[in-house]
Amino acid sequence: MGAALVRAYRDRNFRVIASSRSIKDSADSGILAVPGDISKPETAERIVREGLQHFGRIDSLVNNAGVFLSKPFIEFTEEDYAHNIGVNVAGFFHITQRAAAEMLKRGSGHIVNITTSLVNQPMAGMPAALASLTKGGLNAVTQSLAMEFSKSGVRVNAVSPGIIKTPMHPPEAHAALAALHPVGRMGEIRDIVDAVLYLEAASFVTGEILHVDGGQNAGRW
C-alpha cells in the first residue's frame, strides 16, 4: 500500500519522502528513501531533516505504517503489546510531531492517518484488541489535532479501511475475508489510494474519518 501511495503522489508531481525498515534507494530523483524503524524517534528525526534538506518543505504526511495482530486478548504477550504500541502509536507520534511543526511554520499542510474499521465495528470472529487500542487512538487524535490546528491551515484526516487485498493475506483466505464485508469483496489497494488522494485535494475537509470498508461501518449484516 505504501508503494502504491508513493507512485500515486509522484504521478501528481509531488516529491516524496518514503520510509520503511528495508527500503532501498530509488532511481527517481523525486523520491527520497529513508530506511529505519518508524517506532524510533531518531528515524522520524532523519526523515524530516533529510526531507527538508532535499526538498525544502513538507506539505503532506501519510501515516501508513502499521501492524495488525488478531488473537484472543488474554493471549497477547508483552512483546505483542510493545510492538503494536511502538509502530502504531509511537510511530505516529514521533513523525507527526516533527512534520506538523514544519507545516505550522508555513501555515499549511495535510496529515492523513490510516486506521481500521474494526475500531468501530469489531467482529467476534476476529479478536483484535490491540488494533482497536492503537488505531482507535489514531481516530481520536485525528479529530483532536484537526481542532487544534483548525485555524492554522493544517488539516488532519484519517482513512479507515476494511480488509485490503495485499500480500499480507494469502489467496486461499480471500473468499472468507471477502465475506466479512457487506459488499462481498475485499478492498483493493487502489481504493485506499483514491481515498487518500481525495482527502489530499479536499481543502474544506478536516477531522474526517473516511471509511473505505465495503459497508462495514454502516452496520451489521
From TrEMBL:
The keyword Oxidoreductase applies. The keyword Oxidoreductase applies. CDD domains: SDR_c. It holds the Pfam family adh_short_C2. Keywords: Oxidoreductase. Belongs to the short-chain dehydrogenases/reductases (SDR) family. This is SDR family oxidoreductase. It comes from Sinorhizobium numidicum. The lineage of its organism: Bacteria, Pseudomonadati, Pseudomonadota, Alphaproteobacteria, Hyphomicrobiales.
